[in-house]
Design the sequence.
């Protein structure tokens, strides 16, 4: 159980699960544990490449912001069909990645920020 809940004397299982999802998302975004294993590279750089590919395929400009919104939308659509913890984990990770992009925060040297993309 996370230290916060031990200190507060809270033992509600739902809150432990919520904290677990947030902890896993934190590890993906800020410690890159799963991503490094999969060797996908920085999320922002991958999204930049994907936005460039989508721009060609759609014959219209697809921004990195658009890509984050599509990823978030896809996870919400999947979750609306059937609950799967991985949907929520990815959703939180995409939201955190998008927030970093918008706030010009780099979690890795190769990350792309909004100010660099404009």
Sequence:
């Amino acid at each position: 159980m996370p230290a916060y809940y031990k200190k507060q004397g809270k033992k509600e299982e739902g809150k432990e699960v919520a904290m677990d999802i947030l902890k896993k998302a934190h590890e993906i975004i800020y410690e890159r544990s799963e991503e490094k294993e999969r060797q996908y590279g920085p999320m922002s750089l991958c999204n930049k490449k994907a936005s460039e590919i989508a721009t060609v395929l759609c014959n219209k400009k697809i921004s990195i912001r658009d890509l984050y919104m599509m990823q978030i939308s896809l996870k919400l659509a999947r979750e609306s069909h059937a609950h799967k913890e991985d949907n929520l984990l990815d959703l939180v990770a995409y939201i955190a990645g998008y927030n970093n992009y918008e706030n010009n925060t780099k979690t890795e040297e190769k990350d792309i920020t909004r100010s660099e993309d404009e």
Remarks:
- The longest helix spans residues 13-31.
- Residues 1-10 have pLDDT under 50 and may be disordered.
- The two ends are 43 Å apart (CA to CA).
- DSSP finds seven helices and no strands in the chain.
